[in-house]
């Protein structure tokens, strides 16, 4: 546990020492708020926080690969991964430390958008249950995509390759749970196959939690999804450690 906290602090500190992290945060928040403003304030539309969380999943598909590509690929390129592997720390502790540091950074970025629902709540009647549920769903959704991005980053020393692999993987996962695609597939695919394909995507469970209703099945899904890719991440690193 102590080793995981050390890695967590080291990694989280690196985000605030890197200009890329600031650019990522500013761009993501700016794009989200722009689309929300367009959707809620244009033509006298009803003020609501729904456009914020409706836009967020696709924005994470586009932005997260650029954030996760460096997590292991940069360590391998700089030769610091070999140094980390010589420390008295387990591979799983390294993976968890980096994962929770990235998740903490994203939580801080999400917190920067809290001004929107606060403003809407001050000038109108806002139902806070789905808003809080949406923030939780966003963090879990982001965590699942971080786990995927970390896995691909652990398989290569080239950051651009890691980013492209993550981008393609996350885009496919997102589209598998896209309601429009599900509705289209329902017209020609068996219902059981549609449910199976839809059940693979974090997007389905994001939408479920964002309604403001906590279902343990949704939480179990995110835990299993993240656990699978983090375990695969640890295996990839452990294989490299074994080969030297």
SS-derived structural category: mainly alpha
Round the Cα radius of gyration to an integer and report it: 19 Å
The ordered H/E elements are HHHHHHHHHHHHH
Major β-sheet annotation: none
- The total of helices stands at 13
Ranges where pLDDT stays below 50 over 5 or more residues in a row are none
- The tally of domains stands at 1
- pLDDT averaged residue by residue: 80
* Overall 3D shape: globular
- What is the percent of helical residues? over 70%
- Strand content is under 5%
Spatial gap, N to C terminus: 25 Å
SS elements, strand count: 0
Detailed description of the structure:
The chain has about 240 residues and is an all-alpha fold. The protein has one domain. Helix content is about 85%, strand content about 0%. The chain has 13 helices and no strands. It is globular, with a radius of gyration of 19 Å. The two termini are about 25 Å apart.
